Request: fold
Amino acid sequence: MRLPRDDGSVLVADIALAAGVLIVVAAITSAVGVLADTRQRVDEAARTAAIVAARSGDLNDATLVARGIAPDGAAITVTEARGSVTATVSTRVRLPHPVLRWVSLGVAASVVQPVAPYRSAP
Reply:
C-alpha cells in the first residue's frame, strides 16, 4: 500500500523562505546604498569646500558651495588657521530598512587643505 504524499506544501514553504530571504537581502542592499551615497556626498562636499576656501579665501563662499553638494540638514564648518583650511561636513542617515528604520548613523568627513600660496589676501 502506498501512502499519499503532499509535495506541494514543501514547494510552498521553500518559496516562502526564499521570498523572505530575498526581502531581507534587498533591504540590506538598499540601506548600504543609501549609506554609501551619503558618505560620498559628505566627502565631496568637505573636499570641495576646503579647495574653494584655500584658493579664494572666502569661507562663506566655500560653505555655500558645500551646502549645495552635501545632503540636506548637514552641518558644515569651514575654518582657516596657520596656513591651512579645514572643512568638516557631518550628517545623520536614517536607514531605509523595514526593521531598522529607527536607526540613524552618523557620517562625517573632514579635509585639511593648505592655503594656496598664490591667492591674494582677503
